[in-house]
Amino acid sequence: MLRLADEHGYGDPSRRAKARATAEEFLSGPDSDIWLSRNVMLAFTQMMLMAEALGYNTAPIEGFEEKQVREVLNIPNHVRVIALLAVGYRQGPAKPYGGRFATERLCFTEEWGKGMKL
């Protein structure tokens, strides 16, 4: 965004420089991996919802070796691979719907274990 703002002369150059320094500092800090993971998962959620709306099935994948994924997909080392998303059509019959847990088992009020009554 900042590069595009520079290219198009949008906004005050000194403010963009300050924003760039602040962003670089934040993204290289100790909490950057947590922030990055959360934002990737937000994007994944939207991608999964849209794929499902278009009739595709999705499966997010987190348990993988990042280095090997980068090698197989020829992804540069400066790019992080946070998660993978498989998108396609399911083969075979759908699994039977197992139902949902009772609300009292999943939602609590005030303290853990004190189920909600709807």
Structural class category:
mainly alpha
The best one-word shape is: extended
Number of helices: 5
Instruction: Give the full name of the CATH homologous superfamily.
Output: NADH Oxidase
Estimate the strand proportion. 5-15%
How many angstroms separate the termini?
46 Å
Please, what is the oligomeric state?
A: single chain
Rg, Cα atoms, Å: 21 Å
**Count of strand segments:** 2
Give the rounded overall mean pLDDT: 85
CATH topology: NADH Oxidase
Number of domains: 1
Structure, explained:
By secondary structure, the chain is mainly alpha-helical. It has a single domain (2-91), classed as NADH Oxidase. The chain has helices spanning 2-8, 13-27, 32-53, 66-73, 103-106; strands spanning 57-61, 84-88. It has a two-stranded antiparallel sheet.
Concise structural overview:
47% of the residues lie in helices and 8% in strands. It is mainly α and 118 residues long.
Question: Which features would summarize this protein structure in a list?
Answer:
mainly alpha, two-stranded antiparallel ribbon, 118 residues, NADH Oxidase, 2 strands, extended
Please give the structural blueprint.
Blueprint: H1 2-8, H2 13-27, H3 32-53, E1 57-61, H4 66-73, E2 84-88, H5 103-106
Antiparallel strand pairs: 1-2
